[in-house]
Design a protein that fits this description.
This protein is an alpha+beta fold and 212 residues long. It has a single domain, classed as 2,3-Dihydroxybiphenyl 1,2-Dioxygenase, domain 1, CATH 3.10.180.10. It is built from four helices and twelve strands; from the N terminus they run H-E-H-E-E-E-E-H-E-E-E-E-H-E-E-E. The protein has an eight-stranded mixed beta sheet with strand order 2-3-4-1-5-8-7-6. A four-stranded mixed beta sheet has the order 10-9-11-12. Strand 9, helix 4 and strand 10 form a beta-alpha-beta unit. It is globular and about 40 Å long.
Length: 212
């Protein structure tokens, strides 16, 4: 993976039907046990995090039994999952309103820019702006974008021990997806595949592993 792509990755999203089970799965695969992050009010989800570097992390996201069912479907296809999977990724962004306008103008339909927040277990509230998760582009192979503003980046307090070595995508329409990514300034490799998939190579205590 190029340094340019590595620096653009904010986080990877591992969607699962149960947060504790997802934490167990990542620990069995990598040797690192992610720590609880917090709830996403209104989305009906909660997460756990493990750092992948100084400014990137792996997010394990699942339904939150402590919230009522949300009015809209949960993001990343969580409501229809049969098994855990690497369901999407997030890229770092700035001036998101203008960035989104330019993306849409060039044929990449990123979602509207929204403001969100969550409370960490220590009581600190994180706030951020991002392109709407409800808008999925190219089956999640094209990322959503986030701007943490003045908030402390979550990777700084997440448990360490993992590093992202490589990231690639597979898609039946690889050329079209790769063209959209290039339009956004992202050099994520896209290979021809029968089903859409994100594939991450991660180093950790158990060696180099593949997550998809």
């Amino acid at each position: 993976m190029s340094n340019r792509l590595l620096s653009s990755v904010d986080h990877l999203v591992y969607a699962t039907v149960d947060l504790d089970e997802g934490i167990d799965e990542i620990e069995c695969l990598t040797g690192i046990r992610a720590r609880y992050g917090g709830q996403h009010p209104g989305l009906g989800t909660r997460n756990a995090l493990a750092a992948l570097g100084p400014l990137s992390y792996l997010e394990i996201i699942a339904p939150d039994p402590g919230q009522p069912p949300p009015q809209a479907p949960r993001p990343f296809g969580i409501d229809s999952l049969d098994e855990s999977r690497l369901a999407g990724w997030c890229a770092k962004g700035k001036d998101l309103d203008h960035f989104r306008e330019e993306a849409v103008r060039h044929g990449v339909p990123l979602g509207e820019v929204l403001s969100m927040s969550r409370r960490r277990p220590d009581g600190v509230v994180l706030s951020w702006r991002l392109t709407d998760l409800a808008t999925t582009v190219a089956d999640g192979m094209v990322p959503f974008f986030i701007d943490w503003g003045e908030s402390f980046h979550p990777s700084r307090t997440a448990i360490g021990g993992l590093s992202l070595v490589d990231l690639r995508a597979e898609h039946p329409d690889a050329d079209r997806v790769e063209q959209m990514l290039r339009q956004l300034g992202l050099d994520l490799p896209v290979e021809q595949g029968s089903e859409p998939a994100l594939v991450a190579i991660i180093d950790g205590p158990y060696g180099r592993v593949e997550l998809r």
